[in-house]
Each structure stands twice: as structure tokens, then as C-alpha cells.
Design a protein that fits this description.
The complex is a heterodimer. In chain A, 70% of the residues lie in helices and 1% in strands. Chain A is an all-alpha fold. The two termini of chain A are 47 Å apart. Classes of the chains: A mainly alpha, B alpha/beta.
Chain lengths: 325, 520
């Protein structure tokens, strides 16, 4: 009688295999270890400050660490507002850019456009900041003014302390706002969002495309019915990755914004804040207590960015396009 | 090596000769360079324009001096933490700011005065399409502006200071520093000492427990906060930001081409922070001569209340904080560089202070500073004869013959019409520093300033001259609308250069891929 049990496979790995497996395992785990170390370092350094203020850290708006009165209510709201404006600017721009590159652009133009977009990602953020502060701001102010004048009835577009009928009214209330900072940050996150979307769109199965075209669909109908549904995960994932980047953008916001420590929901109005800009502004001149408070703010930002990025990767992985990649 | 061709042989010989001579010179350069190690410092942006000029000057001696103008508070903290070799600050350690004492560093340190200057009030207002460049303000009006009591440019208190000006009904936007700053400290110190009730009222309003001097300006709605002197002056200098005013060192106003307010002194004259006005004012400063931690620090009460008409009330000295012991990353080699650099700017460097928008240190402070240099570990003994320093203050007539303010600058019904600060002499700061002569103006007052702004796009505003009397005056009823942003030839050149650079970067890969495809 023969034994029907399948033969046990023994895997014999030679040295090269073992070294390779070890290296990539180490590489993978180092990333995780660094993340855990960053998180625990922040938590450790923040514990002193958090011990002083407790839960009011999440509700207090002021930032006076040396008087024991500080919290992230104002800065975290400011961070989210700037990031949302950035995403609102970046996503339509990135979506149309990537669709144009993958679907419409002639083959010769494609690589040129790709390198232009990648070049945009190579511009240092301090250059974006300088550009935004000295050059871009004067051009955005009239737009802010127009928006405030005609859409001021929408609460978050309102601007306090200015009379639109007064020709001498100062335009400085429209400068250094979350809106301007958000637009510049939006320009900065556009390349990464574009490249993720472009990657996903270009993976659309050729068979489905041809099927749609063969059924008589126009190119736009094909994009709507095949490319966009297929790339849904990439669109959402790219958006959220862009959001994660926008949340952490530092130096540009630091240069443009006029920091305030109250919840400022009016995005067109002068004054705003972000956690990263606050850290850049204050870390150099802080007392040990102030530094600990900044670490606590950094921890909150770290947790938030992590959550957004995990959400993005889950969405991407569960979608069709993401599962294939 | 056996080379037949004579021509090639000659070329080889030439190349090898050139190479050998290169190595010879190269080694000479290296010998010069190794004598100084690079040092780095951080701190005050108030003094940054002077320090940047000096450290550029000493590169010819092979010194590499790095300086990050990140604000006085940051500089003091970094020095305390040992991350920089020297710091520059307007205020010393040990002061109480918002209820917190700024602790002294644990390593040995000394203060060394580096340059004097005036904290100026740079502003951006136009009236009838023309830049106003001869604004005058008294101390209490300044305090009220920066504490939100006076909110309109046509306020009667401002009008009282400016009988010759009609100011528009614009909101005043005070621009303050968002980072910890020595300029803020000097300004709030002056307000708290001279106009205590106004400052304390504001201080209580914003919820500070302790008032007095602070490095972090507390803001209220309607104010704009920007990081660094560069940030505040850059904000005010944006053409659209009309109605703004900020406190910044005089040099920044000269650099950006904007006017500064003349401030009322105790003698009843409105003065500008020119080099001589600052120098005369600082004759009233009390320098701490007691050896110890606070040796050479300043008490400015006598400056604020100096009775000489040729004084600018907000004058002060700026200090370098130098280590007096080799510890941590600070070695004797670094001390040698720092000492040589200090000797340079205390001696020859002071000669440039005036042109840069600062004021030279007086002889006694230069001498005291040179003594401090000797305490830096590794300092090489440099016998500097102070009389060879070309410092204008060594001549006593620098103080005695400083020009008196003109009668129209006196508190009263008349008002000088010449432009101030960077709006005065066009590109050269020197003319402004020698007493506010206007360059290229026709004496019409409000004009003459436009055209030197940052963007360089402003034309000279309209001035109407009466055909019969020949009297020129600026029209005050003109609409406020400012000119459209024009593109000058310069802008086009820069844009096309950038475009060409982008093309150079982008085109080759495209061509290469195209070529590769064709081959396939």
C-alpha cells in the first residue's frame, strides 16, 4: 500500500537566500521600530506637560506653557482648516492633471508632463513659502475680498471687522489667512496626489477600456464608467495621503500665517495657526516646560497624521486597483 | 613616457606645469584657511544686517562665520544649550518675562556690545495715491497704536502730531513679531517704563498676569504677527498692505525703501533714528561697570529721557554673548576665530555702521568690548590701537557737531516735508543716515518717496502745481486706487530666465526618450 500523504516539502535555503530574507525583514521592521520610537519619545517628553493640564489640553485655546495654561483646541482646528483648504485645491487639480496625462495627452507629451509634475515636488517648501508670502499673497487678497463680499453669509467665509462698502477699508484683514496658507500648501501636495492617481489610472485593465469603447462609449464615457470606478481607491487614498502631508506642512505655514491662539473658523480672515508651525515658531525659545508642551502638541499631530494615513492605506488596499498593486 | 609627436609633448608639458602650479597655490590657500575654524552663532535679527555685512567682509581673511538670525530669544536659548558658539541679543539673561525668569547659562559667558541702533517705526500709508513719508508720532500715540487704543490713521491724536498731513480714514494695522524677539523686548521695555499705564492696561486686557518687558508680543484681533525682522518689514513693504506700521531696526526700513516715523523726544523735537541721533541719545545710557554677570549691560532710562534735541528715544545697544571658557563643542580654535572676528567688527567694522543703518559704538564701549574679547579662550593677543580704528565717534566733534533738528521738526504747528528712512535717499542708505536729506525730491513733501518700494513698480504720484503761483502741493482728494501691478523689463527677464532653466532641465530627458523610441 502506498501512503497517500503528500510528501513534506523541506525548504532548503542557501546562504544568499537567507541573507536576502534577513535584510528585507530587518528593513521592514526598522520602519516599524522607528515609528514606535518616535511615538514613545513624544509621549515620554509630553507626559510632563500633559500631567500639568490633563484633559483641558484638548479644550484650552491659549498657549502660555509657562503659566500652565495651554491646549491644542485652537491650533488643531487651524491645522485641519489649512489642510482642508489645501485638499480642496489639490484634489481637483491633481484629478484633472492625472486624467489628462493618462487619457488625453499625446504620447510624446506624457513623459514631459510627468517630469514637470515631479519637478514641482522637488521645490523646497521654504521656496514655496517665500513665493507665497512675497509674490502670491497680493494676488490672492482680491479673491479673498470678493469671496468675503459676496459669500460672507456662509459662516466660515465671513470676515470680521471690515466694511465692504468702505473704499478705505484695509485689505490686511485678508492677508496671512488660513485660506492663503492652504492654497500654497495645496500647491505643494498636488504632485504626490497626482502621481498616486496617475499610477492607479494607468493600471485600468485594457480589456475593460476596449470593451467600453467597443460598445460605442465616447472617451469621456469610458473614463466615467471604467477608469474612475476602477481608480476610486486611488483617488481616495491619494487625497488622504495629501491630507496627511498638508497636516504636517511646516515652514510654508510658518512664513505665511499670522499666529492666533483662538479658534478662528473664518478661513479668509487674517490669523490662523497650525501645530507644525507652532512648533517651528516656539521650539527654539522654550523653557523645558514649553518644550514639553510642544512635544504634546507634536504627539497629537503625529497621532492624527497616523490615523489619516492608516485610513488611506485601508481604503487603497480594499479597492480593486489597490488590491492589484 | 615616450611621446613622439612634439605638439602633444608640448601640451602635456604645459598641462603638467599648470597642475603643479595649481597644487602650489592650493596649498597656500589651505595654509591660510586652516588658521581659522568656522564658527556659528544665532540670535537677534535686529542686528543681523550689520553682522551679515561684517561676516561677508572677513571671508577675505579666511574666516567662516555663520549666523542665523532667528530672534534674540532663540539665540540666548541656543547659547545656553551649547548648540552655538556665540549669540547676539538685545537683552541680557536673567530678566523676568511674563512671570518667568530667563535663567543664566551654566557655562561662563560675557556680554560684548557690538553695535548701536534705533528701533524704528516703519509704516505704509498713502494718501491721494502718494506715499506719506514724513509722519511724526509722539510716544504715547505710538503706545496707544500698538495697544489697540488708537485704531484709525485719522485719529485726532495722530493729527495733532502731524499738522501738515491729512491722513486717510484707514484702520491702523500694527504688525508685531510672532517669535521671541529682542526688538519686542526693547520696545515693550520702553512702553512699560515711559507709558506704563497704557501698557499695563493692555497687558491686563490680554490676560497676562505680569506686565513689563516681554519678548513675545501679546496680540489682539486686528494685529498681524510675523516671524523675524525680515518678516515684519516684508509684510509692511507689500504694496497692498496699506495702513500697517511695525517696529524694526532702522536698517530694514532703509533696505526696503520705506519711511519711518519721526518720534518725539524729551526736548520737543521729532527725530529720526539716524546714526548721529542714536549716538547722541546713547550718551544718556548707563552702562553697568560692576564686574560680574551683568557687566556692560545697559540701563536706558537716561536715553528715553535725554534732553538733547538731537536724540532718538528708542536707541539701544546690541550685545554679543561670548563664551569665556572652552566647554562642550567650543574649543580654543573656535575662540581664536571668534576673537579675531570680534576684533574686526569692534574696530574697523564700526566705520560701516552708519551706512548700514546702525550707529557706531563710542570709544569707551569699543575699549570695554576689546577687553571682553581677551576673555574668550584661545584669543590671540591683538594690540589694537583704538585710534587707528577709523571709528567716527573717536572724534569728539561727532557728538558736539551732530546736526540739530530743523525747526520744522519741533513740536508745533509746522511740519517738515522731507521724506524719512528708506524713502529718503533712494538706493543709498548713506544719505538718509547723514540727517535725512531727501534725494531727488522737489521739496513737495509727500512725493519723492514713491518708486523706491520693494516692487519697484510704483510711479511718482501726481503732484499738482499751481500755474500762477508755482506752488506745488499734493492733491488730497484723489481716489485711493493704486496703480495696477505692472511688469517691468526686469520681471520679464527673470521670468524668461526661469523658463529657460526649466526647459533645460525638462527637454533633454524628453528628447532622449523620443530618440530611444525612434531607434526601436
Amino acid at each position: 500500500m502506498f501512503d497517500d500523504k503528500p510528501r513534506r516539502l523541506t525548504i532548503i535555503r542557501d546562504t544568499g537566500d537567507k541573507v536576502f530574507r534577513g535584510t528585507i525583514r530587518a528593513g521592514g521592521s526598522v520602519v516599524l521600530i522607528i515609528m514606535v520610537l518616535v511615538g514613545s519619545f513624544l509621549a515620554f517628553r509630553a507626559s510632563e506637560a500633559l500631567g500639568v493640564v490633563g484633559w483641558s489640553f484638548f479644550t484650552e485655546q491659549a498657549w502660555e506653557p509657562d503659566q500652565g495654561k495651554f491646549g491644542i483646541a485652537a491650533v488643531i482646528v487651524g491645522t485641519i482648516l489649512i489642510a482642508l483648504v489645501a485638499v480642496c485645491v489639490a484634489v481637483p487639480l491633481a484629478l484633472s492633471t492625472s486624467l489628462f496625462i493618462t487619457e488625453y495627452a499625446p504620447r510624446q507629451l506624457r513623459s514631459f508632463l510627468v517630469s514637470i509634475v515631479d519637478l514641482m515636488a522637488a521645490i523646497p517648501s521654504v521656496v514655496f513659502g517665500l513665493w507665497g508670502f512675497f509674490f502670491f499673497q497680493p494676488f490672492i487678497v482680491p479673491i479673498s475680498k470678493w469671496l468675503a463680499q459676496y459669500f460672507g453669509w456662509i459662516p466660515f467665509l465671513a470676515v470680521d471687522g471690515v466694511d465692504p462698502t468702505d473704499p478705505l477699508a484695509t485689505t490686511t484683514v485678508y492677508t496671512s489667512s488660513s485660506f492663503i496658507a492652504g492654497i500654497v500648501v495645496g500647491m505643494m501636495v498636488t504632485p504626490i496626489v497626482t502621481s498616486i492617481m496617475r499610477e492607479v489610472f494607468s493600471q485600468t485593465p485594457i480589456g475593460e477600456r476596449e470593451a467600453a469603447l467597443g460598445l460605442g462609449a465616447t472617451r469621456w464615457a469610458m473614463i466615467r464608467n471604467v477608469v474612475l470606478p476602477f481608480g476610486q481607491g486611488g483617488i481616495i487614498g491619494g487625497t488622504m495621503l495629501g491630507l496627511g502631508r498638508a497636516l504636517g506642512e511646516t515652514i510654508t505655514v510658518y512664513m505665511i500665517i499670522s499666529p492666533v491662539f483662538t479658534i478662528q473658523p473664518h478661513i479668509l480672515q487674517n490669523g490662523g495657526n497650525s501645530v507644525a508651525a507652532l512648533i517651528a515658531l516656539r521650539y527654539g525659545e522654550s523653557t523645558p516646560m514649553g518644550l514639553s508642551a510642544l512635544m504634546a502638541a507634536g504627539l497629537a499631530l503625529f497621532a492624527m497624521t497616523l490615523a489619516v494615513n492608516f485610513g488611506a492605506s485601508i481604503v487603497v488596499a480594499r479597492s480593486r486597483s489597490g488590491a492589484a498593486s | 613616457m615616450n611621446i613622439r609627436n612634439p605638439l602633444i609633448r608640448r601640451i602635456v608639458a604645459g598641462v603638467s606645469l599648470a597642475l603643479s602650479s595649481l597644487t602650489v597655490f592650493g596649498s597656500v590657500d589651505a595654509a591660510l584657511a586652516v588658521s581659522y575654524v568656522p564658527i556659528s552663532g544665532a540670535g537677534s535679527s535686529w542686528s543681523a544686517n550689520a553682522i551679515d555685512q561684517w561676516r561677508r567682509n572677513v571671508t577675505q581673511y579666511g574666516m567662516r562665520i555663520n549666523y542665523a538670525s532667528t530672534g534674540s530669544s532663540d539665540g540666548r536659548n541656543q547659547f545656553k544649550g551649547g548648540t552655538v558658539d556665540y549669540a547676539v541679543s538685545e537683552i541680557p539673561y536673567g530678566l523676568i518675562d511674563n512671570g518667568r525668569k530667563d535663567d543664566l547659562p551654566t557655562r561662563g559667558f560675557a556680554y560684548m556690545p557690538i553695535v548701536a541702533g534705533g528701533t524704528a517705526f516703519m509704516y505704509n500709508i498713502t494718501s491721494g495715491g502718494e506715499r506719506i513719508a514724513n509722519l511724526r508720532l509722539s510716544g504715547d500715540v505710538i503706545s496707544k497704536i500698538f495697544t489697540g487704543v488708537i485704531t484709525k490713521w485719522n485719529d485726532s491724536a495722530i493729527a495733532k502730531d502731524n499738522p501738515g498731513l491729512t491722513l486717510p480714514d484707514r484702520t491702523i494695522v500694527p504688525v508685531v513679531r510672532s517669535d521671541g524677539s529682542g526688538s519686542t523686548a526693547q520696545f515693550t521695555l520702553w512702553m512699560s517704563k515711559q507709558y506704563g499705564s497704557i501698557w499695563n492696561a493692555y497687558c491686563n486686557k490680554v490676560g497676562r498676569n505680569e506686565c513689563g518687558m516681554t519678548s513675545n508680543y501679546p496680540t489682539i484681533s486686528g494685529m498681524v504677527a510675523q516671524p523675524n525682522s525680515q518678516g515684519v518689514s516684508g509684510y509692511v513693504a507689500q504694496k497692498a498692505n496699506e495702513g500697517t506700521i511695525t517696529y524694526v531696526e532702522y536698517s530694514y526700513a532703509l533696505k526696503t525703501g520705506f519711511p519711518v516715523a519721526k518720534v518725539l523726544n524729551k526736548a520737543g523735537y521729532y527725530t529720526e533714528p539716524t546714526a548721529q541721533n542714536v549716538a547722541v541719545a546713547l550718551l544718556g545710557a548707563k552702562i553697568n561697570k560692576t564686574p560680574g554677570d551683568n557687566y556692560l549691560t545697559q540701563d536706558l532710562a537716561g536715553v528715553y529721557n535725554n534732553k538733547d534735541p538731537r536724540t532718538y528715544p528708542l536707541s539701544s545697544y546690541s550685545y554679543m554673548i561670548v563664551p569665556t571658557e572652552a566647554a562642550g563643542s567650543f574649543t580654543a580654535d573656535k575662540g581664536k576665530t571668534l576673537a579675531a572676528f570680534s576684533n574686526y567688527f569692534l574696530c574697523q567694522g564700526q566705520n560701516q555702521a552708519d551706512v548700514l543703518g546702525y550707529s557706531p559704538l563710542p570709544g569707551n564701549l569699543v575699549e570695554a568690548g576689546l577687553e571682553q574679547v581677551k576673555r574668550i579662550p584661545g584669543a590671540e593677543v591683538a594690540d589694537i590701537n583704538i585710534n587707528s580704528c577709523d571709528n567716527p565717534t573717536l572724534d569728539k566733534s561727532y557728538f558736539t557737531s551732530a546736526p540739530m533738528p530743523s525747526e520744522c521738526d519741533k513740536l508745533g504747528a509746522s511740519q517738515c516735508t522731507d521724506a524719512t528712512g528708506g524713502a529718503a535717499g533712494g538706493s543709498s542708505g548713506g544719505t538718509a543716515a547723514t540727517g535725512g536729506t531727501t534725494g531727488g525730491t522737489t521739496g513737495t513733501g509727500l512725493t519723492g518717496s514713491s518708486g523706491v518700494g520693494m516692487t519697484g513698480t510704483m510711479g511718482t504720484g501726481p503732484t499738482v502745481c499751481d500755474a500762477d503761483t508755482g506752488v506745488c502741493s499734493s492733491v488730497k482728494a484723489l481716489p485711493i486706487a493704486t496703480e495696477a501691478l505692472g511688469w517691468s523689463a526686469m520681471n520679464w527677464v527673470i521670468t524668461s530666465v526661469v523658463f529657460i532653466i526649466v526647459l533645460i532641465i525638462v527637454v533633454p530627458p524628453v528628447l532622449v526618450t523620443a530618440a530611444a523610441r525612434k531607434r526601436r
